[in-house]
Design brief:
alpha/beta; 17 strands; globular
Length: 888
């Protein structure tokens, strides 16, 4: 996807400013309304401002309107004051200063409410909502347009009183209704709720056609095209996830993606035809750019031929020359100059280098220089910063580093002056770091990487949940900043013994932020933020606990050990990312294949032990370590560390240490609650099920597992098979606190949160986001749940994103700890392990990590215990169970 000016930076030709045309109509009306004002000079100032606005001189218009506003405020002409404030809000919005615009919109609403003009109140609420969507806050936009938490179920789509859409309908303001519907659809698109977005946009389109408003029709068609294109990307991601699991629906998902892309193409072509008929030049440019970007995104589908793409590009270039100077023209120029030529690996043209662009280098630089000049004339500093930065990136890719550096510094200065431009500021800070690094000036590059990291950390939450499309490009425009900075810090730690701990702490802090960013990106919401605690890492470590943190980089993997005495030790695994990943996948697959053999071949387990643990053995021994907490990175989340094998001692790692895992110590609940109250909620499905055409085999040992849990917790409630329904679960936990929730059913973790779910009764499923919603309603809050046990999980081999979902399950759901499995064992061994684990925690008071260790060691001794199947000493049966989150 190649819409970074519209996705990450929230300034876009693809976003629909729904009342853009309405604002022009309103401004024409304002001239007539102001004719009766006594001060003729002030009237002229307002009208001159409108003329300057029409020419793209927004600063000039603002200056005139502010002078006029002083006069009207003295005479307290409320309606006129509202009109001038309205124009000021639009002018600031055109300059990209959305925060300033929002301040004026608030004033406008107040004034129209004062004079009782409800129709205008509704229209302004819609414009205010658009501003919030531009800031990446679609939730606030939806609240203004239809009300927070309104019922959108079939037949109950009425918006709340006082919302923009409801006011428009009450006032029979058809134009305002179309604008509100369109804006609501756009906000839902940004939220990733594509079905809801399409529903609203299609309704808006029908209303616009009935009202015969071609300007709105063009806008709606573009938004529909963008929504279908976004949904197509989601279908593609689901198809990839399904294919990895050999789910029959993979082909259907792929077909759905193609269908959505074709619909997007149709809407963009329709919008182009409509805008050409009406001679809407800016709208034509918007449609052409959308088409070109869609072509680039769907090269493998052959929706159009190369000749069509070239014709549209030439048409856009010709049109660019005839567009009036405006911020829109600046961003269009940047988009055109950065078009890559057939490189499917380029997802972010402003951060990645394409071997060749669609335009010749001379043409691209000419267009970018013109964009800079236009932005300077308009005094649009944000747009100027983007144009300068884009030209700097062009020269970076051409290895003309001095030119690139000069332009990037100018872009940085402008972005830094605009306190609201942190999204672009991080971009140019990162670019400056890359330019220096490519010149082997690492020491000078580090501060710029650090600045980019600091800036990104402040805005991370907004941009990661602002638009669902960002999920597809996370690895190209967010993750590299963290990893490159962490690598710098680790390299410095290797060279500087005196400052080793300091640099390693900085590296760990950087990767810790990356873990948070990954989880926010995966789950697509800010629920993870609620789990952050301010406890220092060292405060979480007891005297016998150590932490291993892994950081996977392209040319090696860093293993960092943190000891209770605050010492840190570093070891590099000198293998490329690709080679190390292959080794990890081979180890995991060998464990899973152990189901078919009585004796497990420990070769791979020995090799990994020597790479990851052996270099730190002496430190662990000297500190009398009993518990190890792993904070794993990337594909290392896929494997159970318990099964690493010490060939010298002839023991698995779990035999010497209790083991836990957590995505981040700052996301780990610092306290232990009481798990000995004897109350548990037990949920399970033992019957076979079919979800999304994928069969899930029966779990015949579930009844035995549940029986063992019942014995440990006599005070329990259970919902088994058909009784395991989300509504029953929700009703049960609203009034009763259950410290332990035990779920014995298939749990699948997919590439995206939508494909992460529990199998419930009657061939239904409960997604992890739905489970989070349910558990947030627990009496006392989800944090009152000490332990969530999931004993039949499944993550795909080699699928880093699915294991990310498993790693974050406790955080997303909101419980303190989770015991889960990396693959589904589905055997009597699970019931034996579960029985032993709960007995150790509930009756003996062990920490959860040590309780799991003891349970796993018991299975390891299967050959010594007659009543246990001697095959259970194979790590296939005991290794996949991991403790996530609080391990105490």
């Amino acid at each position: 996807m190649r819409r970074w000016l519209g996705v990450l930076f929230l300034i876009s030709l693809t976003l629909c400013l729904w009342l853009g045309n309405l604002s022009l109509i309103t401004k024409q009306a304002t001239i007539g309304e102001l004719v009766n004002a006594q001060d003729t000079n002030t009237i002229q100032q307002v009208n001159q401002g409108i003329e300057r606005y029409a020419r793209g001189d927004y600063r000039g218009a603002i200056s005139l309107w502010k002078e006029a506003l002083k006069v009207y405020e003295k005479s307290n002409e409320v309606e006129t004051i509202a009109i001038v404030n309205e124009n000021l809000a639009r002018a600031y919005q055109q300059l990209g200063d959305t925060q300033e615009a929002l301040g004026y919109w608030e004033k406008v609403i107040y004034y129209y409410q004062t004079i009782g003009n409800l129709q205008k109140v509704g229209q302004v609420l819609t414009e205010q909502a658009q501003a919030y969507s531009n800031l990446g806050q679609p939730g606030k936009a939806i609240a203004l347009l239809c009300g927070p938490n309104y019922d959108k179920s079939p037949g109950k789509r009425e918006c709340l009183p006082g919302s923009a859409l409801q006011i428009a309908r009450e006032q029979q303001d058809k134009l305002g209704e179309v604008a509100a519907l369109g804006s609501l659809g756009e906000a839902y698109r940004l939220r990733g709720d594509y079905d809801e977005a399409i529903d609203y946009l299609e309704t808006a389109l029908e209303e616009a056609k009935n009202y015969n408003n071609p300007a709105y029709i063009v806008l709606i068609l573009n938004s529909l095209g963008n929504t279908h294109a976004s949904r197509a990307q989601l279908w593609n991601l689901r198809a990839k996830s399904a294919a990895q699991r050999r789910i029959p629906k993979a082909k259907e998902f792929k077909s759905n993606a193609r269908e959505d892309y074709q619909k997007a193409l149709g809407y963009f072509q329709w919008s182009l035809t409509q805008s050409q008929e009406q001679d809407y030049k800016s709208a034509q440019m918007r449609s052409l750019l959308n088409l070109i970007q869609l072509y680039e995104r769907t090269q493998d589908l052959n929706l159009v031929d190369a000749a069509t793409i070239n014709v549209d590009i030439q048409q856009a270039l010709e049109l660019l020359a005839h567009l009036p100077d405006s911020v829109t023209k600046v961003y269009a120029a940047i988009d055109l100059a950065n078009l890559p030529d057939g490189d499917s690996n380029i997802t972010s043209p402003l951060t990645q280098c394409s071997a060749k662009g669609k335009l010749a280098d001379a043409q691209a630089t000419t267009i970018l220089n013109q964009a800079i000049e236009i932005a300077q004339r308009l005094q649009a500093t944000r747009a100027e910063s983007y144009a300068l930065g884009a030209l700097g990136h062009f020269y970076e890719c051409r290895k003309a580093y001095q030119k690139a550096w000069t332009l990037t510094q100018k872009a940085l200065l402008l972005a830094d002056q605009n306190l609201q431009a942190k999204d672009s500021l991080y971009l140019w800070e990162w670019q400056a770091g890359r330019i220096l690094q490519k010149q082997n000036k690492e020491a000078q590059a580090i501060p710029f990487y650090q600045r980019a990291y600091n800036t990104l950390d402040k805005i991370r939450s907004d941009i990661l949940i602002a638009e669902r499309d960002l999920q597809f490009d996370f690895r190209d425009v967010i993750e590299p900043v963290y990893r490159q900075l962490a690598q710098f810090r680790i390299e410095l730690a290797s060279l500087d013994e005196e400052n080793r701990n300091k640099e390693l702490n900085l590296a760990l802090a950087t990767v810790n932020s990356l873990k948070l960013a990954e989880l926010q990106n995966y789950f697509g919401n800010d629920c993870i933020l609620a789990a952050i605690n301010n406890t220092q890492v060292d405060e979480l470590l007891e005297k016998n606990t150590a932490v291993f943190s892994s950081i996977v980089l392209d040319d090696g993997t860093a293993m960092i050990l943190t000891l209770p005495n605050k010492e840190k030790h570093l070891h590099w695994i000198k293998a490329s990312r690709k080679d190390f990943r292959n080794q990890i996948e081979k180890f995991r697959q060998g464990l899973i294949d152990g189901q078919l053999s009585i004796t497990y071949d420990t070769t791979e387990a020995k090799t990994l032990y020597d790479l990851m643990i052996l270099p730190f053995e002496d430190y662990l021994t000297s500190q009398s370590i009993e518990t190890i907490v792993f904070i794993q990175d990337s594909f290392l989340r896929d494997i159970p560390m318990a099964a690493l094998y010490d060939k010298k001692a002839q023991k698995y790692l779990i035999e010497n240490y209790a083991i836990a895992t957590t995505p981040s110590l700052s996301l780990t609940a610092p306290k232990k609650l009481n798990t000995q109250t004897g109350r548990a909620l037990i949920l399970g499905v033992s019957k076979e099920a079919i979800i999304d055409e994928l069969p899930f085999r029966a779990l015949p040992s579930v009844p035995l597992e549940i029986k063992e849990v019942q014995k440990i917790f006599p005070n329990h409630k259970q919902f088994i098979d058909e009784d395991f329904e989300p509504k029953k679960l929700e009703k049960e936990i609203q009034d009763t606190v259950y410290p332990v929730i035990h779920i014995a059913t298939h749990a699948q973790f997919g590439i995206i949160a939508e494909d992460t779910f529990l199998v419930t009764g009657n061939n239904n499923k409960l997604t992890i986001n739905e489970l989070e919603t349910v558990l947030r309603q627990v009496s006392g809050g989800a944090a009152s749940v000490e332990l969530l046990a999931l004993t039949a999980c499944q993550t795909a081999v080699g699928d880093e994103r699915s294991s990310l979902g498993l790693a974050g399950v406790a955080l997303q759901v909101g419980v303190r700890s989770a015991m889960a499995s990396l693959w589904s064992v589905g055997d009597e061994s699970t019931s034996l392990l579960v029985k032993e684990f709960y007995r150790n925690v509930h009756q003996l008071g062990m920490s959860k990590a040590k309780a799991l260790q003891a349970a796993q060691k018991k299975l390891l001794k299967a050959k010594e215990i007659p009543e246990i199947n001697n095959q259970y000493d194979n790590p296939y049966f005991w290794a996949p169970f991991i403790m996530i989150g609080n391990w105490l």
